[in-house]
């Protein structure tokens, strides 16, 4: 539901609808993969008379209402400390700021962690610092969690390495020459820093009349630079390399 997927968790087959039922709770995985007349799609659909429009779920209410109650609890934004019934996340956060000072959710987890609100972890200020850190560990977090990685230039945390990589690719610069030579995932804060790297580590054309962008006037070899200078500026071009 949180991932907007309708694939089977056992065989990964796509399903046209999502059915919630207790019928299969006692079956083992290998049983699910075999034929059972009483748990076929056609056999279950008539039992699912309730439909949840918010999540698009067909709910089995043939025996009791407990499944629907469970769905409602998953959507609840009740305060975990005092049980106060909040309308939504914003209402819950306002309630905690007023009545349970010092407790808060992780904003990054709220945005990207695929769990229900009632499953989100609430931290104290010190616990949240530990949670965000890649070097410290918060005891409330799952053992496999290792903190939210941060951009070394912006000092901003991201949910995971994928989001950090996307940010670095869009907001900062890389050296195309270093990448060709096997040095990947090395970033520079801005074009000025990258140009300084060009001058110090590669062959950079500093001809006063060179109108090319910094990315176009840096070369991998001295020969490439000399060819550029001969073609674009005639004889007498100067090379620069630290």
UniProtKB/TrEMBL annotation:
Pfam families: zf-C2H2_13. GO terms for molecular function: ribosome binding; ubiquitin protein ligase activity. It comes from the Eukaryota. One of its GO terms (biological process) is protein ubiquitination. Residues 79-100, 151-172 form the C2H2-type domain. This is C2H2-type domain-containing protein. It comes from Eutreptiella gymnastica.
């Amino acid at each position: 539901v949180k991932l907007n997927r309708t694939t089977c968790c056992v065989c990964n087959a796509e399903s046209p609808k999502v059915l919630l039922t207790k019928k299969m709770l006692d079956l083992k995985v290998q049983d699910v993969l075999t034929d059972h007349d009483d748990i076929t799609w056609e056999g279950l659909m008539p039992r699912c008379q309730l439909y949840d429009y918010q999540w698009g779920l067909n709910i089995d209410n043939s025996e009791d209402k407990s499944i629907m109650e469970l769905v409602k609890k998953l959507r609840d934004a009740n305060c975990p400390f005092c049980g106060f019934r909040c309308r939504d996340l914003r209402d819950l956060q306002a309630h905690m700021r007023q009545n349970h000072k010092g407790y808060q959710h992780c904003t990054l987890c709220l945005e990207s962690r695929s769990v229900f609100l009632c499953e989100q972890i609430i931290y104290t200020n010190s616990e949240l610092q530990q949670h965000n850190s890649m070097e410290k560990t918060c005891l409330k977090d799952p053992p496999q969690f290792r903190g939210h990685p941060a951009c070394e230039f912006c000092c901003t945390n991201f949910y995971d390495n994928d989001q950090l990589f996307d940010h670095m690719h869009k907001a900062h610069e890389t050296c195309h020459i270093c990448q060709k030579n096997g040095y990947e995932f090395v970033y520079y804060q801005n074009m000025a820093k990258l140009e300084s790297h060009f001058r110090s580590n590669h062959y950079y054309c500093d001809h006063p009349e060179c109108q090319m962008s910094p990315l176009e006037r840096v070369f991998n070899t001295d020969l490439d630079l000399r060819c550029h200078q001969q073609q674009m500026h005639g004889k007498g071009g100067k090379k620069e390399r630290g």
